[in-house]
Amino acid sequence: MKKSEKQKDSLAGLSAEELITFLRDNPEGATAKDLAEIYSLNRPQQKNLTRLLNSIQGTGIIKRFGQAYRWADSNRVFIGTIRQRRRKNIFFIPEDEHVREKFRIAPEDTNGAFDGDRVIAFVARSRGPEREGKVEMILRRGNLKIIGRLHCTYRFSFVESLDEKFPFEIDVEQTDTNEDGKIVVVEVNKYPSPHENPAGTIVEHLGAFSDEPGLDIEIIIRKHDLPHIFPPEVEAETEIVSPVVTEEQRANRLDLRDVTTVTIDGETARDFDDAISLHRLENGNFSLGVHIADVSFYVRSGTALDHEARLRGTSVYFPERAIPMLPENLSNGICSLNPKVDRLTMSALMEVNRQGQVVSYQLRESVIRSRERMTYTDVNKILSHDDPAVSEKYADLLEFFQTMEELARILIQMRERRGAIDFNLPEAVFQFNDEGQIGGVLKSERNIAHRIIEEFMLLANETVASHLEKLGIPSLYRIHEQPEPQRVIEFAELASAFGYRFPVEGVISQDYQRLSHLLSGKPEEKVLSYAMLRSLQRARYAAQNVGHFGLAAQTYTHFTSPIRRYPDLIVHRLLRSLLQKATSLGDSTAINKKDRPPRNPFMPIPLPELELMAEESSERERAADAAERELEDWRKAVLLAKHIGDEFDGLIINVREFGFFVELTELFVEGLVPVASLIDDYYEFDSRRHALQGRQKRRTYKLGDQVRVRVDRVNVDRHTVDFSVVNLSRPTTAKKR
Question: Global pTM?
C-alpha cells in the first residue's frame, strides 16, 4: 500500500473521494492507524480521519471488519454522477460499468446534490417500474453553471435563476446598476445552506431577453448544455474535405446519376439526407431506391470530427436556427443531396410487391445526381391538382409522384394490417412578424407528401435492420418496448370513463390502433390520443433488438438521417465494413437478400462500445427534445403575455390535484387553471375519473370538458401561463361514445 507524495499531500486534507479510491484499489483494506501512518497525519488529522471513515462507512460503500475498513463491493450502493434537467427530473448514473441503467432521485432525496455532482447513492427497487435512489454523500461538486437574470442595487447584486434545476437566488459581486435586468451565466462556487444563499461568479453576459431576438435560444442552449461551437481541430478537418465529388471517389460505386432521383423536404430545410428514385417493374412490383447521404465516407472513426459528432449525438432544430451535428460545409454542403450535383450515397434498392413486402433488395455504395429539390407543399399540390402553375412546372414528373403516392398507400395499408400505431397528433408552428417577434401559433400540416417520405424511410430502415440482424452482426437498433403494466391500467381506467374498453393484460399494438380508429373524429379524440401516447414507453437506441412496439416491427433501426443523427452514422459504418468485406471476397453483388447470407462472427464495432453509443445517443436525443419543447413553451408564453385579460375557448387535457390544464382551441397553447382560482367551492381531486369535483355544489371539471377561460398571469421567464374559468357555471362536457 504505497502512495506518491502528491497523493499524500492531497489526502492530508482528508478527502472522502480519495480515501474511497484507496480502499477500492487495496482490497485487503486498512485500519485508521494504517492510513494515518501512510499519509503522515498528525493527531487532529487522525481524529478527523476516523470521523470521515465512519461517515463513509455509514453510506455502505465500505465496511468495517474488526479494525480494518474495506471496500464493500455492494450491489445496492454505488458511486456515480447526478444528472438533472429540471427540478424534479433527477437521475443518478453509476460509474460501475456492469450497471447499465440509471436511477431516479426524488428531490427530497438529493441530500443537497445538484447536476454534475459526484456522489455515493443507495438504490432500491421502487413500487413502480423504475428503480429509485437516495444520495448518501457528496464526494465532489460539479461545474454548475446557471442561467439567470441579474438584479443590481446600490448595496448588493444577485442573480435570479431561470433554471428549474437550481431554484435559488445566487449572490454575486456587486455590479453596476446599469446591468440590472440583464441575462447572465453564473458559475456556482458556494452552494446553498439552510441559512445562506448560494454564491457564484458571473462568467458570461448574454443580454436583455426582452430586447434581443434570439436570446431565448442562447439561454436554452446553455440551460440544456448543448454543444454549439465546433472546436478548431474539427473545423480544420472539414476544411480539407473536397467540396465536389471527385472521379476517384466515384470509382467502384454503383453509378445512378442517370436515374430520376428527387429530394422532398420542408421549405426551410437546408440539409438533405435522403433522395428517392422509383419506377414500376414489368411484373407489377415497384423498384424503390432510398439513397442516403454517405456521411460515413467523410466522417471517419476516431477523428476529431467523429468525436464531436458523437458528443452532440443529434442536430437540434429551433424555428429559425439549427445546431447541427456536423459543420455546415458538410451538413449543408458536400454531404447534402443538393440538386444537379454529384453526391456520394448509400442506397437501399428494394423491390416491393403489391402487398408492401420487400421481395429482394441490394445495399450499395453509390453516386447520384438529384434532379429536383422538392418541397412537401409542392408535391402535395401536384398530387391534389390544387395549383395549375406548380403542376405545369413539374408536368414531366407527374407520373413519378403518382407512382410514389400509390406505393406509399400500399405501405400504409401494410402497416395497418400489421398493427402499427399512428396518432397523427399535430405539432406547433410559430408565425413571426417583420420584427422577428411571435405573431401566432398554428398546427402543423401533415399531407400525403409527408406520408410518402415517412413510409419510404420506414421501409429502408426496416430493410437495413433486418439484414444486419440476419447476419448476426452487433448493431444499433431503434427499439420501442412494451408499455409498462401500471401505465396501461391507468389508461384503461381513463378510457373506461369515456365508455371505451381497453385490455389491461397482454396488450398489443393492435389494441392501440383499434382504439385510435374508434376515436377518429370524436370530441374526446385528442384527449385520449395524448393519454395513449403517455401510456407508451419512449423509443430509444439499444445494441440488443427487442422490436418496435409502435411500428409493430420485429426489427428496426435508424439509417436514413446520418447528417443529423449519430446512430445512423454508426449503421452506415457497419454497412461499409460489410461492403468492404464482400468486395475483398470478390462478391460483386455486394449485399443482396437473395443470397441469404449465413450468420457471421464479423464484428466491426464491439458490442460493449455499441451499448455505450446507444445510451449516449438516447441521452442526447432526450436533451435535444427537452430543449426544443422548452423553447416552444417559452414562445407560447411570450405570445400569451400579449393577451392578458383576453378570453378563449379551450379543452381540458390534463387534470391534477393542483388544477387542470387547458389547451386553447384558437391558439394551440396550453395553461393551468389553478385549483385555488375555483373560488365557488372546495374542489377535490378524483384520480380515477381524472376530475376535480366541488365538495358542496358537486360541480365537476374533468378531462375532455370544454371550458372558456381568461388569461390571468404569464411568467415569460418561467414560461408558465395561468388561466381562470370565465364563469363558474357547469362546463360543457364532451359527448361520450
Answer: 0.85
